Amino acid sequence: MFWTRLKRNWYWAILILLVTGMIIGISIPVPTFNTNYSRVLYDRDLNLLSATIADDEQWRFPVSDSVPVKFKKCIIQFEDKYFQYHPGINPISIIRALYLNIKHKSIVSGGSTLSMQVVRLRSGNPERTLLQKLQEMVLTLHMELKKSKSDILNLYASHAPFGGNTVGLETASWRYFERSSYNLTWAESAMLAVLPNAPSLVHPGKNRNLLKNKRDQLLHALLQKEIIDSVTYELSLLEPIPDAPKPLPQTADHFLHYATRQQNNPIIHSTIDVNKQLMVNSIVDRHYNKLQHNQIHNIGVVIIELNTNKLLAYTGNTNCGTMNHKYVDVVQASRSTGSILKPLLYSSMLHDGVLLPHQMVADIPTRYGNYAPKNFSGNHLGAVSADVALARSLNVPAVRMLHEFGAEKFYFQLHKLGFTTFLKPPDHYGLSLILGGGETSLWQLVQVYTTLGRTLQTYNHTGIYINHHSDSIQFFESANNLHQDEWQSSPSMYRASAIYFTLQAMKEVNRPESEAGWEHFATGRNVSWKTGTSFGNKDAWCIGMNENYCVGVWVGNADGEGRPLLTGNTSAAPIMFEIFSGLQPAGGFKAPLNDLKTMNICAQSGYLNNPHCPDIQPARLPNVETRTGPCPYHTIIHISTKTGKQVNRNCENAANIISVPWFVLPPAQEWYYKKQVNSYQPLPDWETHCHPNRDIDQFQIVYPENNMRIYIPRDKHNTTGSLICEAIHRKEQVKLYWYLDDRFLGTTQYIHQMQIGKQEGPHQLIVIDEYGERKEIHFTLVGKTDDT
Questions:
Q1: Cα–Cα distance, 265 to 262 (Å, whole number)
Q2: On the chain, which terminus has fewer CB atoms closer than 10 Å, C or N?
């Protein structure tokens, strides 16, 4: 009798099955959505920057934390009015669905609640059968026991179909309305609420009138329920239905891919500012349109906020054609540094006290072994202030300074600063390290220069040094900042004063032609910047800073192809300055007064004064032990009052002699310097009856230098060549006599160059001028080695 009654009252059977399933399922975990999600990148204000499509070719954003109030009220009103009250199954809806299905002899209604739809979505929308329906009911009750109503509604909103390959509320909101679902109007929320009901039939790109009618009906229901007022209702009816889905923003694609490698999270809340990112993208596109005419196709840009160390913009490449490697993230690519490391060497030498900010350094033909650096202009200045050499990016002074400082020492300092791309031992790079012999990425370069600015600013604000060298650029908005009261004193790579003088020198770099008149604008005056160009014109760099921002730019071709006229000054610098013009104006870096000392220097040479310097000036210098010594160029000479020529007491009456201070450069420096500086006064000639003093060199051997090891040169046919030695005399007409290992080689006049033999081993070179002044050096000729 019982089973007969049970068969007649089939709904009791369903209830028993549901209760039994519910009891069994209490201890079973709720199955989760086993699906793929898009990778999504937001800026600091939750504006969508970029997204990647999921592995199954669906635009499906990850599950959100909550559902916006407007959409919540719309979807409940439209789909499941009793969602907050039923246990996951609405008996009235089930009975109504059964009645309609029996009446129409087909499935016209499922009676599904929002909870049941979540279960169905999780199952992949299988074919509708009675058994499938029973299974969904059991799983729905199970889910209701395990999850809150808010969680269930959130799962629905995140996985509901919204037409085409658009899945989830947040995805649909950005594709249809280009903003977050939390910023939608009532009309927009209502449209999205009705869309999942039949996404393939009702779609903004088709059947727009039908979709509008369904939306308006929902808005009317909201009005009747007093969820919205009459004014909101009337205004909502006027809002148009959007067109077909729009492409999702691709504003920072390269950064999205980089960030996902750093943080395995499908939703990335970055520190990027969307307005600055869009500005940079626009500037890059505009300059690409010009550069492509020279077959230059790739550009990378990074902006860092100096005070917070936060990333504000990251453009990994131009939006050029696929044949031009637009998918390569050139910000992370290792490229030849060119001259972009020169400021770091300047800081290093200031920090160690082996260089003063305005100290004269040599700019003369230089050769170390087979390495002979050349200035970009091809000319030499003879002698130039160190800060001017940096501002003009002179190669020869930089190489000579590195040789003095030590290439190996500088190499290890670069590692301590944070460069990880110099992977080979220091002797592999040698002196070429300062001119692009090594490689780094724009990302690391900007990080290191930002560190310099932050170190100086922190010292000015707190009077202590912070170990910013371990700081990575902050690009996740959720990362914690180090507050000032948590700062602790720590050793610094460079003193604040060394950094300050470096940044001051960088303010004087020659501007590109596009920046004509820059000195009339405060924003231009306050930028400390440096360019770099790699050998073969393959890489153009520019880095710039003021007290608020650090901007780095790289321009070139991702495949390494060099192009004529591709230089840091002509290609990268205009981009950087245009970016700074779009940023908030800021001041320059302030002097670290507590890390400066005042000492007297020789105004002409930049060295500490000596007793013979005629123009002594007080100057602020880095507060370190100064090891440069006094000015080596000023000396006292004796001149005849009658002839103006040099004399001494052995050949002239003391009454006719005056002693005057004289600025005297070494012969090689003087040779080039006097051609550039008209005010330079060479030493007066000696009276014919006087014998010159030997305390001032009249000539010098320029090449080779003493104790140098020289590889015997070979041409492209592997034929050994000859070594050309060179000397410079103050007086061009004077003859020089050359001897190699006590063997007379010949005589030179005007141009003092002499070819010597090819014999390997140690050698002695002696040169004597016609007045008997003698110079002697020793060098070693080395034959071909296995690695040459």
A1: 9
A2: N
Residue 114, SS3? Answer: helix
Residues 101 and 108: beta-carbon distance below 8 Å: yes
Amino acid at 447: Q
H or E element in which residue 268 lies: strand 267-269
Cis, peptide link before residue 704, omega less than 30° from 0: yes
Cβ proximity of 339 and 391 under 8 Å:
no
Residue 779 near residue 763, CB atoms below 8 Å: yes
What are the residues whose beta carbons fall under 8 Å from the beta carbon of 297, sequence distance 6 or more? 288, 291, 318, 320, 324, 325, 326, 557, 558
Scanning 603-714, the segments in alpha helix (DSSP H) are: 667-676
Determine the pLDDT at residue 788. Answer: 37
| DSSP conformation class of 25 | H
Task: List the beta bridge partners of residue 161.
Answer: 167
Complete DSSP assignment for 541-586:
EEEEE-SSEEEEEEEE-TT----TT--IIIIIHHHHHHHHHTSPP-
CA 165 to chain centre: 36
Helix H or strand E segment including 752:
strand 752-756
Phi, psi of 299 (to 5 degrees): -140, 140
Burial of 56: CB neighbours in 10 Å, binned 0-12, 13-18, 19+: exposed
pLDDT tens for each residue of 207-249? 788 899 999 999 999 999 999 999 999 999 999 998 888 999 9
The CA angle 674-677-678, to the nearest 5 degrees, is: 85
Give 411-467 pLDDT, tens digit per residue.
Answer: 999 999 989 999 999 999 999 999 999 999 999 999 999 999 999 999 998 888 876
Is the peptide bond between 31 and the residue preceding it cis, with omega within 30 degrees of 0? no
Contact criterion met (CB below 8 Å) for 169 and 158:
yes
The residue assigned the tokens 């990302």 is 443
Asked if 137 contacts 116 with a C-beta cutoff of 8 angstroms, the reply is yes
Tokens at 787, concatenated: 């690695």
Read off the pLDDT of residues 746-784 as tens digits, 9 standing for 90 and up: 899 988 999 887 788 899 999 998 888 899 999 988 876
Q: Specify whether the CB–CB gap between 557 and 296 falls below 8 A.
A: yes
Q: Please report how many Cα atoms fall inside a 13 Å half-sphere around the Cα of residue 544, on the Cβ side.
A: 30
The answer to whether the CB of 448 falls within 8 A of the CB of 530 is no
Per-residue pLDDT reduced to its tens digit, 395-416: 999 999 999 999 999 999 999 9
CB-facing half-sphere around the CA of 200: CA atoms within 13 A: 0
3-class DSSP state for residue 166?
strand
Block residue for tokens 């009317």 = 220
Contact present, 553 and 576 (Cβ < 8 Å)? yes
Give CA–CA dist 208/186, Å, rounded. 18
Q: Which of 718, 584, 692 is nearest to 307 (CA)?
A: 584
Can you tell me the distance from the alpha carbon of 280 to that of 529, in angstroms, rounded to the nearest whole number?
A: 18
The arrangement of strands across the sheet holding 48-51 comes to: 48-51, 40-42, 267-269
Other C-beta atoms closer than 10 Å to the C-beta of 663 total 20
